[in-house]
């Protein structure tokens, strides 16, 4: 034992951290699977692969991967549209794309994606997730689209009032959320039990003690749930909708994982994330998950921060957490059948709420209103349309805003009443602002000499240069002194 501790000096800390991460991950893996419309065991499979396969690979040493609330909405829509057998194809293709992007060293470029788009994406997911899971809390069937989910909530609540089973379900869901909200205020010794596990444990005990008529998790067994994609399922790759979903999976899973890695790096003083290798680690995990027909994975900030805060020092903690998930799935699968669905829905409502950056929106609005607008529009687009198109709208807005700012130009005219009129151009002169520049210059008096100073320009594109030269020739043709131009 002493020799082992010498060889692995951080084994004790990593072992303790792995147990904490396991207890945090267990209810989340099951909850994400149920909300995604797949067997609960598939959430555990993704958690196991995220721990053991991705956990062993290089990249971000303390980041923990598994099924994430951020992909729940997209996975649910994909399963409803294409069927569960095609899910494995979607996830496998996502993993292979991530491996390719990592090999091409594209991981670092994901950091160039506007933070407002990513936060807007997570906020949109959070809104749809909350709306959808509130139906599960009320023991009702959720509508398909995000807008219908939100619009139908009042009537679902009214229908639940006269239903004993629905009221019991609401009570358990509300109790779960209350435990999660209040858990931080508990004494330190009590808080050694992770909040999600405590919430599920207490509501499961309450449901059993009072024999409440609520739906519980359906159990199929680990091996019974694993369904590798068939050859016929691969034929769906000819479907444009399937290709679009794969691109959405890849974009969102990669961005969320790499942004999570950047956040985790701020929590510890250990080795920094190697972004391309982390992308390949995520790709390898998703490829294995796809081959098993399981859920897609991303790095998850809740589990990762729990890992760091529990004192983890190396990747051993996340690998061991995968082993504990495997042992639980193999030895105690029947335990899942005791967990009430509204308890898991309550955890995801709480998780969805945490995805919405309320403070971030307020601070952005004070300092960068354009970025705040991109965040809000991205979120609302996801609710109104769908995940993929909502993210594309956000990216398009971000690019348009960058182009607008890159073409920012200032024209200052100084006219002292006598002598030449002085015109100073500063900033970036591009074709986007050309009409405004020419309107201002053509409004200058034709009978006065003009000095055009371009020394303050950072950039002058060909279209602007040609237009300014033509204007100078035309202005000079009125019998006045030629326009004097100071080159940039």
Largest sheet: 4 strands, mixed
Strand arrangement across the biggest beta sheet: 3-4-5-6
Instruction: Work out the strand percent.
Output: 5-15%
Summarize model confidence as the mean pLDDT. Answer: 87
Uncertain runs: 1-5
- Ends apart, CA distance between termini: 72 Å
Shape: elongated
Number of helices: 22
Return the string of H and E elements. Answer: HHHEHHHHHHHHHHHEHHHHHHEEHEHE
The structure class reads alpha/beta
List the domain count as a whole number.
Answer: 2
The residue fraction in helices comes out at: 55-70%
Question: How many runs of DSSP E, i.e. beta strands?
Answer: 6
Based on CA atoms alone, the radius of gyration comes out at: 28 Å
Organism: Streptomyces shaanxiensis
Keywords: Membrane, Transmembrane, Transmembrane helix
Subcellular location: Membrane
Membrane topology: Multi-pass membrane protein
